[in-house]
Amino acid sequence: MSTPRMPELNAATLERREEIVADMRIIVPGEGVVESEAEMRAFESDGLTAYRQLPMVVVLPETVAQVSRILKYCHERNIRVVPRGSGTSLSGGALPLGDAVLLVMSRFNRILEIDFANRAVVAQPGVTNLGITRAVEHEGFYYAPDPSSQIACSIGGNVAENSGGVHCLKYGLTANNILGVEMVLMTGEVIRLGGKHLDAEGYDLLGLMTGSEGLLGVVTEVTVRILRKPETARAMLIGFPSSEQAGQCVAEIIAAGIVPAGMEMMDRPAIHAAEDFVHAGYPLDVEALLIVELDGPQAEVDHLIERVGEIARRNGATTSRVSNSEEERAAFWAGRKAAFPAVGRISPDYYCMDGTIPRKELPRVLAGMRTLSEKYGLRVANVFHAGDGNLHPLILYDANKPGELEKAEAFGADILRLCVRVGGVLTGEHGVGVEKRDLMPEMFTEEDLNQQMRVKCAFDPNHLLNPGKMFPQLHRCAELGRMHIHRGQMPFPDLERF
């Protein structure tokens, strides 16, 4: 296995390892500190398992006070910290550093408050995504974002990556479903952003934190919005002779003003893998399959099913099936949500990508991926959130064959470049991490990246929180503060200086 280029290890920190471990045991007594090589192996990677690195020490705090003391201690001694939730990140966002404290938040696993009157739940960051829904479903409520890993991924990780899921088309990403957070800054200061109220005055700091990938602070509490379950929800399975026709159908459904609760697409390799794994009843004689879910009042759902069916027929659909029970609807989705592990049965390894494109570019990008597949000699299975253009190509390879991992990475990079070229972005919900870090200049200019770095510097001027992630070059904050003086004149001389 390989490890991407990361910041140089701090020799002074490593020399003090025994002292640091001892101090961590004072802050987090009991079994909250893991230091042996064998035990730390469980934390050497996240969901992007191609990259592995042992941390210097693993610390599992249980209280906000402990998190605060750990961060303050590390800040005062210039020790790096890598926050980690459940470790399901697919972008290497939780990849440890050899000279850093790996701060694992999995012990923060309690729901603190359920407020049905205000339709809110206050949870610690280690609570699983699905755990929130299970805590409120007895009253007819649920938490809308539902990543495929929702049974394991934590709500804190959802905030870090701005996760979505199959129903994000209608109900939004994490950013649209959280109301507030409590977080600890690198200095140890504990702050609150937002709350049960809908909006807060001033800068949108809550929006800034959502998707910040652990670079700005450590979340210790999350207030989320819960929704009433819709009166009716039915799913359609629609098969097409080609991915291009399925992609065109997606574009026309949205253009018609129809907003499904979810709209997912799978190509032939993914369809066959999922059906063999789950036996959901998927048609096996099609090249592409759409799963379209419509929810709301019964009359509205019935009407929209007819309209979607008409659009599908116009685009050459060869098969269409509508769920007639909740069990059947769940079976339709079970195949989609099990697609990633299912593909693992047909290939020794696979590399899961995450790029987002304008919906109208689906046919062009799918054709481009086929060309790239031939170029690199590697198969690709496509599973993605078709409604919002969030692609999840799965590049199939064998890590035991020399050079195949590197080919898979180059293939993935070319897919992301294609996404940007057609007007898309590098990620939809997996984050940048180390996986897409060196591709950031494909999407952003140097000035764009410097401006983003200035935000990082405002929260963490010494670059101690999750360094080596997201930014292709690690600048010192002082370098970004340099001012060019031309002929003795400062830029914008009329502005007041502080």
Structure report:
The chain is an alpha+beta fold and 498 residues long. It has four domains: 11-104, 2-Layer Sandwich (Uridine Diphospho-n-acetylenolpyruvylglucosamine Reductase, domain 2); 111-228, Uridine Diphospho-n-acetylenolpyruvylglucosamine Reductase, domain 3; 232-341, Alpha-Beta Plaits (2-Layer Sandwich), CATH 3.30.70.2190; 347-435, Alpha-Beta Plaits, CATH 3.30.70.2740. The protein has helices at 11-15, 17-27, 37-40, 64-76, 129-136, 155-161, 168-171, 205-209, 243-255, 268-278, 298-314, 326-337, 339-343, 362-376, 404-421, 440-443, 446-459, 477-480, and strands at 33-34, 57-59, 80-84, 100-104, 111-115, 120-123, 141-142, 178-184, 190-194, 218-225, 227-228, 232-240, 262-267, 288-296, 319-322, 349-352, 355-356, 380-385, 390-391, 393-397. The strands form five sheets. Strands 15-12-14-13-18-20-16 form a seven-stranded antiparallel beta sheet, with helices on both faces. A five-stranded antiparallel beta sheet has the order 5-6-10-8-9. Strands 1-2-4-3 form a four-stranded mixed beta sheet, with helices on one face. A hairpin with a 4-residue loop joins strand 5 (111-115) and strand 6 (120-123). It is globular, with a radius of gyration of 24 Å.
SSE topology sketch:
Elements (H helix, E strand, L loop, with lengths): L10 H5 L1 H11 L5 E2 L2 H4 L16 E3 L4 H13 L3 E5 L15 E5 L6 E5 L4 E4 L5 H8 L4 E2 L12 H7 L6 H4 L6 E7 L5 E5 L10 H5 L8 E8 L1 E2 L3 E9 L2 H13 L6 E6 H11 L9 E9 L1 H17 L4 E4 L3 H12 L1 H5 L5 E4 L2 E2 L5 H15 L3 E6 L4 E2 L1 E5 L6 H18 L18 H4 L2 H14 L17 H4 L18
Parallel strand pairs: 2-4, 3-4
Antiparallel strand pairs: 1-2, 5-6, 6-10, 7-11, 8-9, 8-10, 12-14, 12-15, 13-14, 13-18, 16-20, 17-19, 18-20
